[in-house]
Amino acid sequence: MIRTGDHALVKQLNKSIVLNVLRSKSPVSRTDISKLTGLNKATVSVIMDELLAEDLVIELGHGPSTVGRRPVMCRFNPQAGMVIGLQIEVDSVSGVLTDLAGNIIREQVEVVDSLADIDVAKQAIKNVVDPLLSHATGTRLGVLGIGVGVPGLVNYSTGVVRRAPNLHWNNVPLRSFLESEWPYSILVDNEANAGALGEKLFGIGRDYTDLVYISVGHGIGAGIVVNGELVRGVHGLAGEFGHMTIEVNGHKCSCDGRGCLEMYASEKAVKETIRISTGEEWPTARVFEQLAKGNRVATEAVRLAGRFLGIGISNIANGLDTSLIVIGNRMANGGSVFLESVRESFYEYCFSHSLSKTNIELSQLGKSACALGAASLVVHEYFSIPKMA
Ligand SMILES: [Zn+2]
Fold it and tell me: Do domains 81-196 and 205-364 have the same CATH topology?
């Protein structure tokens, strides 16, 4: 229920609604916005004047009209501000400075031996963020915030990394550290959640309200978007599909379970298949080089992982009835060999496929996808419509 004292909140709510119409429907006139939102023309006009003053809207000139004066068409201006996205990996911090539409302005990478020591990690983050900030000039709104994607369990509301096994981090208050260094809004989330939001805002998921992003790297994680919003679950653990059992008496997993999807469909599974076949340990780069050359061992290993991933994805689609599943992270380098194998077994195992028409695609955001996903955390928060109590 809206009370009188909530006037400022109502104003903010209306402004967010108008801004989201501008972002999704541009170019539009003030009359179009009034029709699309149900807000009266006077309210739209006041909000549009504010957005023009903030540089978030650009007037394009007059559009067509069948009767009367031709309306002034407007569009959202993604160059009004900037955001920073950071991807934390085991031995590196990658950062991007982007505009509000995810267009990359600057990239910065810091590689170290290991980020397990938190002081080393703090310095590496500073070495990425400070150069990016030095290029963040010339916009009306400046830097709106810093988003961080971490490969581990994160409490999104406190910004504490609860557990990141590969980094050996336990209860690291990452947001507090960043807030003590820079005066910006800081958002920390699991890298798969960030990836899912990145696909929704900037990637192949732009026209979808529901999608699942599967991050397939050394392990497997997932981010779930329903009705445009991330689903984090009661304990922040939603999307741990990598530990879904697909073989009852299967390989032992790092989670102490058995037969987990990531033991069969991840990058480490591909390397293990190759090791068994050749007796050699292949680094990741060699796997994809050989795959590109049509090497039989690499091709078969990637196909086998794709087959298992397709089975895992069919379980996800059966449970969630989503529209789009995006495969990201390093295994997206498996290209058409990987994707076709995933699709083939998905069609074979998905109960509801003939009815639901779930699309399966590879991420197209490239090597900076994870950092872009982290940047999208800030953009999403900035444009999110305030919740009424
Ligand atoms: Zn497991």
Answer: yes
Please state, as a whole number, how many other Cβ atoms lie within 10 Å of the Cβ of residue 153: 19
Q: How far is CA 156 from CA 136, 164, 183, 227, 270, in A?
A: 26, 14, 19, 19, 32
Residue 328 to residue 102: CA distance in whole angstroms = 17
CA of 306 to the centre of ligand 1 (A): 18
pLDDT in tens, 304-313: 999 999 999 9
CB contact at 8 A, 192 and 215: yes
What integer best gives the mean pLDDT of the chain? 91
- Describe the strand order of the beta sheet including 104-111 as a list of residue ranges: 104-111, 92-99, 82-88, 143-150, 186-190
Please work out, in degrees rounded to the nearest 5, the angle formed at the alpha carbon of residue 226 by the alpha carbons of 221 and 202.
75
pLDDT digits (tens, 9 = 90+) for 100-129: 999 999 999 999 999 999 999 999 999 999
Residues measured by CB to lie within 5 Å of ligand 1, the ion: 243, 253, 255, 257, 260
Cα atoms found within 13 Å of the Cα of residue 262, Cβ hemisphere only = 21
Nearest to 362 by CA among 336, 341, 388, 386: 336
CA of 155 to the centre of ligand 1 (A): 20
The answer to pTM > 0.85 is yes
Tokens of 29: 């006139």
Superfamily of domain 205-364: ATPase, nucleotide binding domain (3.30.420.40)
Of 74, 33, 77, 73, whose CA–CA distance to 56 is shortest?
Answer: 77
Residue 232 CA to ligand 1 center (angstroms) comes to 19
Nearest CA-CA partner of 59 in 82, 26, 84, 35 = 26
Contact in structure between 73 and 61 (CB atoms under 8 Å): yes
CB atoms within 10 A of CB 367: 13
DSSP characters over 320-345: H--SEEEEESGGGGGHHHHHHHHHHH
The domains of the chain are located at: 4-76, 81-196, 205-364
Q: Could you name the CATH architecture of 81-196? A: 2-Layer Sandwich (3.30)
Six token digits for residue 225: 């978007």
| Domain 4-76, architecture per CATH | Orthogonal Bundle (1.10)
